[in-house]
Amino acid sequence: MRLVVDENLPYVREFFGRHAELQLMPGTAITARDLEGADGLLVRSVTRVDAALLQNNTSLRFVGTATIGTDHVDQSCLAERGIHFASAPGCNADSVVDYVISSLLWLVAEQGLQLRDQCIGIVGVGQVGGRLARRLQAYGCQLLLNDPPRAVAGDTGLVDLDALLEAADIICLHTPLTRAGESSQPTFHLFDEGVLSRLAGKVLLNAGRGAVVDQQALLRLLQQGQAPALLLDVFEGEPLLDASLIDQCLLATPHIAGYSLEGKSRGTEMLYQAWCAFTGQTVCQSLPQLLPAVAIDQLHLDVACSPEEACRRVAHLCYQPLMDGWRLRQALKHSKDSAAVYQQLRKDYPVRREFASLPVKAASEQQASALRALGFAVTNEW
Ligand SMILES: NC(=O)c1ccc[n+]([C@@H]2O[C@H](COP(=O)([O-])OP(=O)(O)OC[C@H]3O[C@@H](n4cnc5c(N)ncnc54)[C@H](O)[C@@H]3O)[C@@H](O)[C@H]2O)c1
Ligand SMILES: O=C(O)[C@H](O)[C@H](O)COP(=O)(O)O
After folding, report:
1. Can you tell me the ipTM of this complex?
2. CATH of residue 40
């Protein structure tokens, strides 16, 4: 059996090597020709899987994407051709939540505020938004949650978008990208000029998909000084980036919120499990056997800092999003080819581990409970 695989899937040889012949290549370079005679295709979000890619292919039986988002895959086209499809729901959700918490702890400290005192609106309360809500709620933040599809399905504790926009200090976007015809609540340009113009003085963080925000409208509002403060991990039109937008963000990163080692590797593992189930093979590899030990064995905190200070220090030791923002700005200063910059930074992304991988010993019960709430592996007995 032959699988065509995006080379940016960690541990793909370890998982699939003994089950199939692998043809590794850059995800952006995969063509219909490469798929001739292949049994399976494993991609990330940068490969558009549609009628043009599948053309007259008669050999493909399985397509998998090692990502949460599936907007790059034409699933009805796969279904029409009887090709099995698998994605990796939730694989990097904790990585995105770590990214959001680390970014917000930085932001509020810059503003002389406390995260605990903020009212945070979460739009899209699925794997990412739901886990973010659980951590922030345990930490003590006031939350407003918006998710119309879940409201229709009977979930409680949700508010409408108007109420959220009105009251939240910080708005975090975690919806999929859907268009009219695909969903009764499409998210394409959900944050259009009308919505964005209500956000002046607030903070907007988008770690969902770029086109949920109307980027041209956002640029117009920035010009008028009427835009929210921006923390953006995703952009409309990726891989192309608008350097002027990036310059005006408090934090801009090249779609790496989900790029923890655990998050990316879980995506490969989930596809491996789906492939084994599809082909009737036995699962004989698992991620804990492959992941390296964390570089820090145990972190001991000093007694003399507040719970929020402790959380900020530990979060930024584990992962500092400002470094990703700095790398993007530096690279764009030296190159006009924003797509190449975007692709290179993501390809060479440094190893980053999730909060939960870091054992921390707190100096007080208050520190311990704050750290635990935000997702760290606290080793104290309290
Ligand atoms: N930046 C990154 O690195 C990164 C990483 C992972 C996922 N993502 C993106 O984040 C999205 C969400 O991930 P997830 O794992 O939480 O997905 P999910 O499917 O578990 O949850 C998405 C939630 O959004 C809700 N939703 C749909 N339409 C909505 C609307 N119009 N308004 C409000 N809510 C709406 C859904 O009902 C669902 O509860 C993914 O689809 C992906 O595009 C980005
Ligand atoms: O949807 C996802 O899982 C994320 O957006 C993921 O991090 C995208 O990474 P990519 O496939 O673009 O490497």
Report:
1. 0.99
2. 3.40.50.720
